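> forwarded from #structure-qc
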């Protein structure tokens, strides 16, 4: 069994806890469907056992309750344009106490055939404090591509084409060289910068209140997360999530 604590997850500014446990659990492969924030994940814990991609996903159990790991567009939700959003992204990493990963005989011994692809146990935070505690956390960051491909600009391309005709001893005409005689040989657009070179921002604000009153312990949290993309257009992801837990403590 592998275990990742909430402190390890909170130290990483990520959208989903699945991104935070990549590389921390032996044998766990997490692949996002695309580069768009909020998209679903392909999760493999014990390799590929079926030709159906969804049949290879491990079982998720959150506070003892089984939870789907498929995308919302593949779930039984109708009438909503949900694309391929993952419901796991609705869980704020700040609300997680620990993640335990069961595989091999450990998973099947407890959960039977449902744990054939492994089991990921998620435990959310509960209050252990004897007095009220308020926590506020916020961060903001900006990112952009660090390296783009070195491509020819218009003048360099035109020079290369003219040199090729000279080397081959061919006279450019409207048939074999429309790019030199018809097209604009001065205009230049850096499509890399336009399509994937934009800066993207990431911000998160979270509030947490926990404590106890007599035998009743409580934990309340709310968070707002927003992440942009380097692509033009509105492909960002916004999430507002909240959690409320009440627990009865008995002494014996």
């Amino acid at each position: 069994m592998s275990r990742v604590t909430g402190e390890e997850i909170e130290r990483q500014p990520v959208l989903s806890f699945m991104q935070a446990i990549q590389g921390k659990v032996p044998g766990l492969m997490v692949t996002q469907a695309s580069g768009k924030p909020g998209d679903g994940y392909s999760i493999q814990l014990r390799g590929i056992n079926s030709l159906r991609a969804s049949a290879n996903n491990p079982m998720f159990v959150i506070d003892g309750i089984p939870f789907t790991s498929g995308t919302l567009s593949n779930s039984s939700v109708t009438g909503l344009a949900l694309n391929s959003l993952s419901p796991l992204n609705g869980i704020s990493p700040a609300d997680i106490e620990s993640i335990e990963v069961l595989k091999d005989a450990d998973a099947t011994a407890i959960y039977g055939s449902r744990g054939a692809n492994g089991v990921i146990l998620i435990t959310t935070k509960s209050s252990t404090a004897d007095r009220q505690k308020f926590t506020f956390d916020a961060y903001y960051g900006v990112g952009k591509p660090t390296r783009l491909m070195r491509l020819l600009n218009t003048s360099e391309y035109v020079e290369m084409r003219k040199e090729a005709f000279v080397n081959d001893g061919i006279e450019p005409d409207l048939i074999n060289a429309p790019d030199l005689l018809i097209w604009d040989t001065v205009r230049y657009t850096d499509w890399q910068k336009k399509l994937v070179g934009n800066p993207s921002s990431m911000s998160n604000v979270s509030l947490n209140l926990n404590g106890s009153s007599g035998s009743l312990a409580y934990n309340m949290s709310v968070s707002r997360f927003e992440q942009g993309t380097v692509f033009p257009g509105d492909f960002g992801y916004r999430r507002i999530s909240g959690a409320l837990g009440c627990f009865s403590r008995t002494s014996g």
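QC bot note: Residues 1-124 form a domain with the Ferric Hydroxamate Uptake Protein; Chain A, domain 1 fold (CATH 2.170.130.10). The chain has three domains: 1-124, 126-146+193-252, 154-189.
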